[in-house]
Amino acid sequence: MSKLNDTIHRVTERVIERSKPGRTAYLEMMDREADRMPERSEVSCSVLAHAYAGATEDQEALKEGRGPNIGIVSAYNDMLSAHQPYGRYPERMKIYAREVGATAQVAGATPAMCDGVTQGEDGMELSLFSRDVIALSTAVALSHQMYDGVAALGICDKIVPGLVIGALRFGHLPCVFVPSGPMPSGIANKEKQRVRQLYAEGKVGRDELLASEMGSYHSPGTCTFYGTANSNQMMMEMMGLHIPGSAFVQPGTRLRQALDKRAVHRIAELSGTREKNMARCIDEKAIVNAAVGLLATGGSTNHAIHIPAMARAAGIIFDWNDLSELSRAVPLIARVYPNGSGDVNHFHDAGGMGYVIGTLLDEGLCHRDIVTVSEGDLSDYAKEPGLGEDDALVWRETGESGDIEMLRPASDPFQPDGGMRLVEGNLGRGCFKSSAVEKERWTIEAPCRVFEEQADVMAAFKAGELDRDVVVVVRHQGPRANGMPELHSLTPPLGVLQDRGYRVALVTDGRMSGASGKVPAAIHVTPEALGGGPLSRLRDGDTVKVCAATGELSTTADLDAREPAAKPEPKLGVGRELFAMFRHGADGAEQGGSAMLAAAGL
């Protein structure tokens, strides 16, 4: 067994020490919740009647207390391709529960918006705070306290972190996350990228663009690029919250159904125990493992926000210094689109998460001894699932990588670091995803052009005003300004400028998509511009330097001599006015950009 890497050990110990007060208080609270969890025989008959009224054929089993009752929290809708398969899950899960003498009820539903649908649209300003709403909805669902375990059904961007945060406040219960898998592969990703850039240049029309996009996003299942949704599934494996190997098995297959069945059976097995409840599963080592997996696979930059937020819900403090230090020790071992040519189906076929976890464990780059929902520790996740006789689940060794251009051993990586770097200086602190950017573009120093809106960037691009070396600054995009929308729609035009030979970078207090691409970008910059952050004092023509190699984000301008730019007027419509309380109460991106966690004092 390999010795744990010194940096992984050091960062983990620092997180443990820093988190002691909050973690101790959290675990004490979860133990109290377990102690006071009501026996259903002691609950009033009126309450029980309400709880059982809709259970139809499970009423007798519930009334007699024959076995554990599983609460299903579902983020189903059929506007999200990833969540469309969940529509039939509850009825199947109830059957699976009966097989082991348990029952299951849909405890509640959470919203589930698709960032892909709202990209570049006003609705994107609700996206980040939908995570808080999902956490709150999860809490409402579980507040009935009629459940002995939780099945969490969610996949996409803010949904899994929101479910994690909500479930952690019921951490005295066991909780298994149940994915539904990716859609089959569509058109080649390079072709999709090519058509997007042609459209940005005005060389193809909307008909061609729509045909290309529908060739990529074409059927039920998770989008196949390695963005936030699929990074979520990777993290659930690294944290031991899935049935091992569940992440990237396609919907509608016999293997998918076998994994779903095992998830329900396992929740029933875990009910009534404290050793593997949610509170014990998500500890400091699990949080570090999530970060290690993110770095090793070149995952979504959005998790620089989500990991600290999830950690806080478990009484743990994890920051960007921790992430950046881990990045220097964790090698990049996967190249999945947009960092490579193949998608998550190719990644899974090449060995997938079983291979990733196995090689990281072999090199001592993650914690083996975490508490998981499986029978053992993280070693259980270093295998791949399959079907044996009578369609019984079996787990096999992954063997060597099936595609060395996509998935490499940690001893022979694509690059020696994980490519998620902290950049900081007199413009604040931000994140730079270097794994997606050619090394010769890690340093950009050029006059800046300052914008307040994505649409203004697009207009300037179309007018030819950005045809030069330029650092594009898009400010007042932070949590408190407008909910911190993703700015993924800027990737094609900035990519065009870069392909024309210009040295281009983006600096913003907003987010980029989990599909952040080849253009160097300092994102999530904090303090945000609203309230007087450094970006609010930049002016057109100021020289800005972004350097992933040295970790620099700076300007030569005398910012102290300037007043901050005017506060933008709040936007109305698309429900944005209803989210004002979230914007007013949000904390910084490095803390997770959450109003809910800030208000709770976590």
From TrEMBL:
EC supergroup of this enzyme: lyase
Entry keywords, A to Z: 4Fe-4S, Carbohydrate metabolism, Gluconate utilization, Iron, Iron-sulfur, Lyase, Metal-binding
Domain Dihydroxy-acid/6-phosphogluconate dehydratase N-terminal: 68-379
GO biological process, one term: Entner-Doudoroff pathway through 6-phosphogluconate
List of residues binding [4Fe-4S] cluster: 156, 223
GO molecular function: 4 iron, 4 sulfur cluster binding; metal ion binding; phosphogluconate dehydratase activity
Function, in words: Catalyzes the dehydration of 6-phospho-D-gluconate to 2-dehydro-3-deoxy-6-phospho-D-gluconate.
Family note: Belongs to the IlvD/Edd family.
Record-given protein name: Phosphogluconate dehydratase
